Protein 1
Amino acid sequence: MTTAQSMQAAVLDSLGAPFRVAPLPRPHPQSGQVVVRIKASAVNPLDLKIRAGQAAHARQPLPAIRGIDLAGIVEAVGDGVTAFKAGDEVYGMTGGVGGLQGSLAEYAAVDAGLLAPKPANLAMRETAALPLIFITAWEGLVDRAAVYAGQKVLVHGGAGGVGHIAIQIARAFGAEVFATGSAASKAYIERLGAVAIDYRQMPVEDYVAKYTGGRGFDIVYDTVGGATLDASFNAVTRFGHVVSALGWGTHALAPLSFRAATYSGVFTLLPMLTGEGRAHHGEILREATRLAEAGKVSPRIDPRHFGLSTVGEAYRALETGDAAGKIVVDIPQ
């Protein structure tokens, strides 16, 4: 039962356990915080790893409220908050790691710097899907690699969460975009305006020769990791830039070094875990809002609907690998 001072939340008591929906005290805003009445929460692959105890870099003390991304309505603001007021529609990547309450709840008190105004042309479900994937794509392409018009950009995993947003951001900046994927994802990648490359049928040397005349790509964004990052070092041009959101393995840097190319890693959670750079995440999401309202960025959403009582099913839908876009949990009050 929910009262005026409580809220419903999906609680994870132990690693790998089922979620338990329970009433908890409703949060109040501290200085610099905003209380958001949450309308939707996205499920990310990282959520699966955290629940299974496989993400040491993003552990959440248990029992925990999971959920990294949210979209909702400002309920109250704390001292020092001037950018938002009660009733504003907002979104952000705000919790679920490092002891910060997640978004699988009716309310959350979050750092106002992590939030941005919701795109007027997107539904709450679509908006909730954007924060982690947009910030990750933007930090790699814009903050690290400084993408600009006329460049040839290769996105590994172009039909994935970060990948499909990276394609759209690169195209919004005027780049010519190529993206690797399976044969099944070819039509979708092409709908996004990129040249689809079937990585199973065409090795890196062949597509570098075919699409760049052997020169290599100006920017390569790896969203897959492992051997794909090694391939990226062979796909980049001289003085080019390789970016990876999954550069956690052991890799030979010789191919990169002989091209005098640059490598950057993207660790999107860092501002939430350390407190440093949170306002920049809000700035990035304001860019997301601008691009979304201009019709240049749109997230792909799986059509299935889930609620707090079916969070476990939402996680399983992502685990099966057959999701047609981001999985979103609706949180009606």
Protein 2
Amino acid sequence: MQESGHGMIVYRSMDRQTLDAAYNNSAAVADSDQYLADWLRRSEALRVRMPDHLNLVYGDAPRARLDFFTATRSDAPTLLFFHGGYWQRNAKEGFSFVAEGPLAQGFNVAVAGYTLAPEATMDGIVREARISLHWLHQRLSTLGGDPARLYVGGWSAGGHLTAMLMDEPLVAGGLAISGLFDLNDKLGLDAEQARRNSPLLNLPASAAKLIIAYGAAELPELQRQSREFGAAWTAHGLPGEMIEVADCHHYAVLEQLAQSDGLLARALTVAVGVDPG
């Protein structure tokens, strides 16, 4: 293993200190705490307004729950959303606010929880995401959704989970925001676990359209991850769209899905062909 000026190279010519800084969005965005607090307030307000389908149990683990927010029309398309937090932090309850944008565009929205690392391995987290997808698909008709129009989306670590689920025939399309697609050993992954959980290295033979989005003001490594994955996706002959969102850092870019007229909420609607009504 090579050495840099600081220490041993652990990933793409970066030592541990450089690697940590390259993915430290909390440090890169000075007001990240205010974003998370505002998201929690908005999420709590939405949960009060729409309490009918909260904490639906899709699996055995305590966090294997999802919240389902229903559009005004029956047989609407549904977005299954996975939150971020580097697979180690946050909870679905702080991300209900994301539903407001897609709801305004005519979508049902399910926000899924999942077991965090290190309690769960990366293999286990991806497995839970797949279980939540299949569980929701089986129940969409009862909940008022169209099972043929089930979309997946996520932000940061949730963008990774979105990409991992694109090989599922149940998925009608995806939106991966600021995702990680070429995993390093930040979570203590061995080489084989990192390889099999890296979407960049496991492109599906066929898939529905995937929108890959990131903020133009994000950390360079986050931008690189999306650009390289997007290039590989289309080079593999898969349907996709790349969106660089101007003037947005890692937290602001998610607002473009959460806001009713946000760029990503509208892009999702156009890709799906939904009339918000």
Protein 3
Amino acid sequence: MLSVAILAGGLATRLRPLTETIPKSLVEINGEPFLWHQLRFLRQNGVERVVMCVSYLGEQVRDSAGDGRAFGLHIDYSFDGDTLLGTAGALKRAQPLLGESFFVLYGDSYLPIDLRAVETAFRASGKTGLMTVYSNQGQWDTSNVEFTGGRIVAYDKKHRTERMRHIDYGLGVLNASALARVPAEKSWDLAALYQELLNAGELAAFEAPQRFYEIGSFSGIEELSSYLKQQSGQGPQSA
């Protein structure tokens, strides 16, 4: 299976004061750092290699997860450095560790989805990138994707339309060649990269059947905590 890049370098201002002394990925969920839940899910779904893209308090992330052996994984770390590089910029820096193609997900997202099915769809598409989408209908967050006929027609986080009923699910797949569009050592957002790929006809899509969970807000933390309690004892949490 493809390696996974986890984008965990954000400042997490919405969770302060909780994140004034710890990074968001280490926020406690049911007695353990969120990252541990995320890593176990990835291993249960066949992932073997993870690259943590970190910045703010990133040393704490490294100290918590280590080399990954405790989770049956191999984990590498890529630090932004003195300047925050943004989500796509962080991937650009981590490129030597990621391989020819890789999954990318956010460090605050718990996504109960079949990763193998997503990888299969990406390879079958022949595209440079793939975005997973969910029929959000404005329920969990503001919808930002117009999706019809199995393809993304429009994607924009800033200029939304009433035709946008889906949302960026938070999991993507990229070929390393997509990162050639990202300037080196500059702040660049993954959303901007997705838009460029869409405009170039190089962005495939996969519709997720189940809602996403996130810890970017206090309400999101409560929802994920409840979900994981319900799932405990039921084996690997795949879709």
